[in-house]
Write a structure and sequence with these properties.
The chain is mainly alpha-helical. The chain has helices spanning 2-22, 28-59.
Length: 60
């Protein structure tokens, strides 16, 4: 069982190293676009959650 854990950790390390090797740092325009999309999505989910909570509060 212990050897299986060591093998899994080595595989995880190798996979992580491969992913970091092909990844890149985004430029400022790409980063800002991503930030805007995440903020808009968070805002939409927050508004939907608030509306649902208010509807449930009114029903109860």
């Amino acid at each position: 069982m212990d050897l299986n854990l060591v093998k899994r950790l080595r595989n995880f390390y190798a996979d992580s190293k491969r992913v970091l090797g092909i990844s890149y740092k985004p430029d400022q325009q790409t980063f800002m676009r991503t930030v805007k999309i995440v903020l808009i999505g968070t805002l939409i989910l927050g508004i939907l959650g608030f509306i649902i909570a208010e509807i449930v509060g009114l029903i109860s």
